TrEMBL record:
SUPFAM superfamilies: Metallo-dependent phosphatases (SSF56300)
Listed name of the protein: DBR1 enzyme
Alphabetical list of InterPro entries matching this protein: Calcineurin-like_PHP, DBR1_C, Dbr1_N, Metallo-depent_PP-like
GO cellular component entries: nucleus
Region of interest called Disordered, as start-end residue ranges on this chain: 386-537
Chief site of localization: nucleus
Keywords associated with the record: Hydrolase, Iron, Manganese, Metal-binding, mRNA processing, Nucleus, Zinc
Biased composition, class Acidic residues, residue ranges: 430-441
MF terms in GO: metal ion binding; RNA lariat debranching enzyme activity
Taxonomic superkingdom: Eukaryota
Length: 537
């Protein structure tokens, strides 16, 4: 079957779907499935806009609300993960995944589903070491800290995914797995994005948690976005035994959704011709959720997941074939995900703007039904209970609970907290203007008017139809210092000269990284300064 993969959507659903329709008209290619690798921006109304970690002047409604209201329907089944520019209050309603609109499915904090026999997994958000070991404690209304931490990856989601034993066909993450750039045309990448050099050479670009998952899951395909550049790589995995067959992952990062940008890719994926067209639950993943339910943490307490180090009574939460069979029996062997989308917030009405509407913490009926069916903890219900008991202290903070044998708050983090090496101040965050924000300022820079859609005929040349081979040659996987890379057959990419022509200086601080002047990561300066001069100080 044909699968379309998109990078950062940034709420431009009309543009994305119209591009797919143009693809069908011009080349008679109709994808069976669309995957989006984060920054989807499922914004329903003005309150949702205030829950996106971007400066207010970049908060634009875009076109998702039309699909949420039912005015429009996605022409192809769409499955997406969250990024770092989302209506976090909306996605938080569906921690285990669910429908955000008819025919548009969110995978949750982490999730695995099946479509036509193809197993698709993903993890939402981006990696930040200082929040990695916390629970999902945030809820609206967010403050300047929680509006960012709400989309930070947590170790429990990585732990759950690492319990999977069955093969994964496709996996999605928003940020790149750390070190993946060593398996592609690194020289070409640095030619296009020279401001990545320091992080690439220090091996600090990307997510160490995603890298860990890549090595464990070894999926056939791995798709990412976030850095707004197209990049292909081919990673041959080491085998654990002589009996194990060699495995390899074809990695592809997509650009953001803009005209003249390479934001969409079509691949052919082997599927089960006898499988139905409905999106389905994955029985092993449901069994893992049930097995790890006792590990759910909705506090700010930091702790490591169970491991074989003498501190935990249990560390292996992978599931048996019997447990998977029990899930199948619970569902009467009908794995079809119910089409139970429900409106949980008022939809934006251009004729009646509601600029003063405040976001509220909502319990989504889809999550309630899912948790009841499989005996899982409703994370939002747990947070709500804490608020009602008066332990929220006004910011949805649940009381500090004593950790049992499944975890320990005193264990050291499995990742070095200094995961950038660029400076002594927090390397993961950027400081913006008074409106706040995080990492990527281009969240709402795409603002096509709903009444004046853009001309897509000029942007169609950026669509690439990729065969099974993923068009990654052996030369692409060689070290970037090899001059043969200049002649490799790697994917053609769009060079953004405007982002590198201007020399940009980082604002420094004292030796401890303290300064009264706002700072911004070097590569973010180069990416965004040329797009909009007034986005940073």
């Amino acid at each position: 079957m044909k699968v379309a993969v998109a990078g950062c959507c940034h709420g431009a659903l009309d543009k994305m779907y119209e591009t797919l329709e143009l693809l069908q008209r011009r080349h008679n290619v109709r994808p069976d499935l669309l995957l989006c690798c984060g920054d989807f921006q499922a914004v329903r109304n003005e309150a949702d806009l205030r829950c996106m970690a971007v400066p207010a002047k970049y908060r634009h409604m875009q076109t998702f609300y039309r699909y949420y209201s039912g005015e429009k329907k996605a022409p192809v089944l769409t499955v997406f993960i969250g990024g770092n520019h989302e209506a976090s209050n909306h996605l938080q309603e569906l921690p285990y995944g669910g429908w955000v609109a008819p025919n548009i499915y969110y995978l949750g904090y982490a999730g695995v589903v099946r479509f036509r026999g193809v197993r698709i997994g993903g993890i939402s958000g981006i990696f930040k070491s200082h929040d990695y070991r916390k629970g999902h404690f945030e809820c609206p209304p967010y403050n300047q800290q929680t509006i960012r931490s709400a989309y930070h990856v947590r170790n429990i989601e990585v732990f759950k995914l690492k319990q999977l034993k069955r093969p994964i066909d496709i996996f999605m993450s928003h940020d790149w797995p750390r070190s993946i750039y060593h398996y592609g045309n690194k020289k070409q990448l640095l030619k296009m994005k020279s401001f990545f050099r320091q992080e690439v050479e220090s091996n600090t670009l990307g997510s160490p948690a995603a890298s860990e998952l890549l090595q464990h899951l070894k999926p056939t395909y791995w798709f990412s976005a976030h850095l707004h550049v197209k990049f292909a790589a081919f990673m041959q995995h080491e085998t654990n035994s002589k009996e194990e067959l060699p495995k390899a992952t074809k990695f592809l990062a997509l650009d953001k959704c803009l005209p003249h940008r390479d934001f969409l890719q079509i691949i052919d994926v082997e599927h089960d011709p006898n499988a139905g067209d409905a999106l389905e639950y994955d029985a092993e993943w449901i069994a893992v959720l049930k097995a790890t339910n006792s590990l759910v943490n909705v506090t700010q307490s930091t702790w490591n997941m169970p491991e074989k180090n003498g501190l935990h009574a249990k560390w292996d939460y992978s599931v048996t074939e019997e447990a998977i069979k029990e899930v199948l029996e619970e569902l009467n062997h009908d794995l079809k995900i119910p089409c139970n989308f429900t409106l949980t917030a008022a939809c934006y009405d251009p004729s009646k703007p509601q600029k003063n509407t405040e976001p509220v913490h909502t319990i989504n009926p889809q999550t309630t039904e899912f948790c009841a069916q499989f005996g899982l903890t409703d994370i939002n219900d747990r947070i709500q209970q804490a608020k009602e008991e008066g332990s929220g202290r006004g910011e949805c903070e649940e009381e500090e609970e004593e950790m049992d044998s499944t975890g320990s708050a005193e264990e050291p983090s499995e990742y070095n907290t200094d995961n950038s090496g660029l400076s002594s101040f927090n390397p993961d965050e950027i400081m913006l203007d008074e409106e706040g924000g995080d990492e990527d300022l281009s969240t709402c820079s795409v603002d096509p008017s709903p009444d004046h859609p853009p001309d897509f005929s000029t942007s169609f040349s950026d669509i690439r139809i990729m065969p099974d081979s993923m068009a990654v040659s052996s030369d692409d996987a060689m070290d970037s210092n090899n001059e043969e890379l200049e002649k490799s057959g790697g994917s053609k990419q769009v060079q953004e000269k405007s982002s590198t022509e201007r020399p940009l200086k980082r604002i420094g601080g004292d030796e401890n990284g303290n300064s009264g002047v706002k700072k911004i990561k070097r590569r973010n300066q180069a990416i965004y300064a040329a797009e909009d001069e007034d986005k940073t100080d």
